[in-house]
Amino acid sequence: MYNRDTREDGLIRRVYERNGATMYEVALPRMKDSWGRGYCISDWDENVLQLSNNEDLKSSPLEGGLRF
């Protein structure tokens, strides 16, 4: 997924609800286009998301990630 506000690509790890809003727990690569250096976790609101076109990150080795 791509976050329009932060201009970051990430991989959704889980979806949950907070105060009636749909939220996404997203893994963000430490290096922009590679999972090689690991990742951080961020929570994104549904309203800032769009599908990513970053092909390098779509081949993620992360377990449990949802691919779009």
N- to C-terminal distance = 7 Å
Radius of gyration: 11 Å
Shape: globular
Domains, number: 1
How many distinct beta strands? 6
Number of helices: 1
Mind summarizing the main beta sheet?
3 strands, antiparallel
Average pLDDT figure: 84
Strand content: over 45%
Which structural class do the helices and strands define? Answer: mainly beta
Unreliable spans are none
What strand order characterises the main sheet? 2-1-6
Q: What percentage of residues falls in helices of 4 or more residues?
A: under 10%
Question: What order do the SSEs take from the amino end to the carboxyl end, as H and E?
Answer: EEEEEEH
Quick overview:
The protein has one helix spanning 55-58; strands spanning 2-3, 8-9, 11-18, 21-31, 34-45, 49-50. It is mainly beta.
Describe this protein with a few key phrases.
mainly beta, globular, 68 residues, 6 strands, 6% helix, 54% strand
Describe the structure.
This protein is mainly β and 68 residues long. It has one domain (2-58). Helices cover 6% and strands 54% of the residues. It contains 1 helix and 6 strands, in the order ββββββα. The protein has one helix at residues 55-58, and strands at 2-3, 8-9, 11-18, 21-31, 34-45, 49-50.
